[in-house]
Each structure stands twice: as structure tokens, then as C-alpha cells.
Amino acid sequence: MLHTAWKGTLSFGSIDIPIRLHIATEDQEIKLRSLHKECLTPIKYEKRCPSCEKDVDAGDIVKGYELEDGRFVVISTEELQEVRRPFENKDISMDHFIELNEVDPLYFGKSYYISPQETGERPYAILQQALLDTNKAGIAVVFLHSRQQVVLVRALEDVLIMHTLYFPEEIRDVENVPNLGDQLVDSQHKELAGKIINEMTQPFTPNHFHNQYRDSLKDLVEDKLAEGQVVSPKEPTKQSNVKNLMTALKMSIDSPPTAKPKRKTSPKKVSRPSS
């Protein structure tokens, strides 16, 4: 059973379908931790303030927008929530539909399976079949994972799929790609390249591809396990205050003594000889 990443309503026209979103892809890369070479202890990445020279927790952190000169505009949690509030609805409202082939794959982001909740099975099935038959997709705007996103809803076999789309300003301008000068291509070379492409064309078969690098890395890990090449990190030593005290004492001994202010003395009374 897939984990539910989001719950809400998928709507078009006057029809509302209670739905759940499930992340459609997963990263199956073999995770490698960074270890200290000397003692093989996992490296920690701590939140630390370099100015105060101390660790900070979540309650000590605020958001800030950085300016070009290195200054910041600080935004409090309350202010951020106030900006989000008008957009934080749980409705994926498809206000129009498009031909599926109109969207360039460059715009596609993350993919989610859509499942109906208990009361939405029938309208879900109707929408899924209609999108499949017409080869169309619905477009909507939704607030998902703390950001507003344009999404595309389409049918695939027996399920609805939602794809997040990048906004146009998030797509980098192709004019910034280097070395794309105007090259004259003669018709003979273009025709030859076209023939080669047509001869090499075949249906897309996802199962044809396999992550060979991941398999090789997995084999290496399993070989090392079979050979007993397994290590345990050293237990972290308790921080002792003796070293700090010794350092402070040494600094105190090595530093030149501060001159003590001279004590004022009252002048001695001179006894006058008696006449």
C-alpha cells in the first residue's frame, strides 16, 4: 500500500472527487554515508551559528531573504503563515483541459498517483475513462508542500496521474546555452541523418533499461559483507572539562602579569624638634 502524501479534492465543473496523492517514483540508489576516515564515525552536519559560535535548534531559526549586498529581510513564521493562508486550500480544481501532447516534457516535475477516497470511486472512474478516451489532460493550480504549483492531471491505464509543472520563469532561457551558433546543414546530410533515425526507431520499452551501476555497487557491498569487511564506529567519548581547564590555566600562566596600580601612601609626619 502506497503512503498517502496529501489528501484533498479533485474537481472539474460541479463534480468533486475526494482523493489522495501518492508519490509515484522512488529513489533506489544505494545510500553511502560520509565517515571520518580516522575512526569511521558518521559525519554530522549540524546547524551552527558562526558568529555566536554555538549550535542552534529549530526554535532559534527564522527565515530571511538575502539581498545582493549580503543583508537580509527577516520574515517571521507568523508573517509567512499570513502570506500562505489564502492559497492553502485542499482543492485541485481543473479549470480547463488541453491536448496531452501540448506540454513539452521540459515542464514536467514530480509525479503522483491519484487514488479515490471511499466515496469517490465512481466519479473518479468516469473522469479517468474520459481523459483516457479523449487523450486530454486537466490543468489546475494547487498549494502543495509549502509552494504553489501548476499541475497536469492525466489518465494512464486504470489510474489518474498528477504531474507538477515548472512555471515559465523557472525554465532557463535556451539562448544562454553556449555554442549554439547558426550552422548551415545541407539537405543531403539532413536526409541521411533522418534515414538513420527512422531505421533505429522502435517502441519505447521502459523494462529494456536497467541501472547497471547500482547493481555493480550492490554486488561490491555484498562481496564485502561476505568477506566480513564490516566495521563499527567508535563510541563517542564523553566531553571532559579537564582539557578546557588545563588550556585556561596554561593561558593564564603564559600571559604577562598585569601591573598592579600603586597604592597611594599618605606622607609621613615629620616630628619637629622641641625648642
UniProtKB/TrEMBL annotation:
Residues 229-275 are annotated as: Disordered. SUPFAM superfamilies: SPOC domain-like. Keywords: DNA damage, DNA recombination, DNA repair, DNA-binding. The keyword DNA-binding applies. The keyword DNA repair applies. Homodimer. Interacts with LigD. With LigD forms a non-homologous end joining (NHEJ) DNA repair enzyme, which repairs dsDNA breaks with reduced fidelity. Binds linear dsDNA with 5'- and 3'- overhangs but not closed circular dsDNA nor ssDNA. Recruits and stimulates the ligase activity of LigD. This is Non-homologous end joining protein Ku. It comes from Priestia koreensis. The lineage of its organism: Bacteria, Bacillati, Bacillota, Bacilli, Bacillales. The gene is ku.
